[in-house]
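Marked as duplicate of an earlier ticket. Keeping the data here for the record.
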Amino acid sequence: MSMTDPAQGVLQGSVTQQENQQEGRRRWRPQWTARMALIPAMAITIFCFYGFIIWTFVISLTRSRLLPVYKFTGFDQYARLFANERWWTAMGNLAIHGFLFIGGCIVFGYLLAILIDRGVKAEGLYRTVFMLPLSMSFIVTGVIWQWVMNPGLGLQEAVRALGWAGFEFNWIVRPDRSIYTLAIAGIWQQVGLCMALFLAGLRNIDPNIWKAARVDGIPVWRVYLHIITPMMRAVFFTVFILMSAIVMKAFDLVVALTGGGPGFSSDLPARFIVDHILNRQELGLGAAGAFVLLCTVIAVIAPYIYFELQKERSGRGH
């Protein structure tokens, strides 16, 4: 070995170190650029979302009516809210509507996706028909179903004109049934979206699963029930979150379809809040209702999200 070999080794190590540093800088610059680009969006989100949550809670502790008044009265507005019978009616309706709407969208959306996935003819036509209601707003959906459910000129009158004089479908004017009309109209509009999400998940299933099932002679329904459905857990999770968000902020469908009536039998928390803030000039009470509704959303959805994330992490660990 010559005397110059150690010097060459040191020089080569120095060059390699410089190259590594330059490579690190090249990798760091795009990451830093991306982070800088996200700062405006992050600032807007923090200000418009979290900032207004804090502001809503602050207003709920005041006597604010038409305009904000920062004279704090503790939790008086919450005491008024919990003593309000209409609020508890709206919360009960929210539970009923949420269970029926979310459950109906998941069940019917999944069944429609399975039927289309089985290779039905004119698949494009069926997908278009089921997706078409999604292009309408909830206001339009409410108006359409208000006509359909109107006892004097809708479905009831049409069936009676065919000879079934005793047929009744007057749920929209019955206090004990009006909340179910919201679920029917909501499912009709959103089932197409659920179907599309489930269909996308089904189309990503490995075809070898079906080949193995046919070889083993497993019935199709058992394959869907015991094999495919567990593999679709992530899609079910996505559909549940999307439909839950729609339920919690449901307002325009109630206004267009039932107006919260008869009486307040189909009232929902979002309509209660908007009505008290805009029509009754009860800003503090409406803010208290909004904050309680937010806490309800967190209490219902957060455990499910935590459970799903834990299952995903444990799956990656294995």
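See parent ticket for discussion. The domain at 86-317 is CATH 1.10.3720.10 (MetI-like fold).
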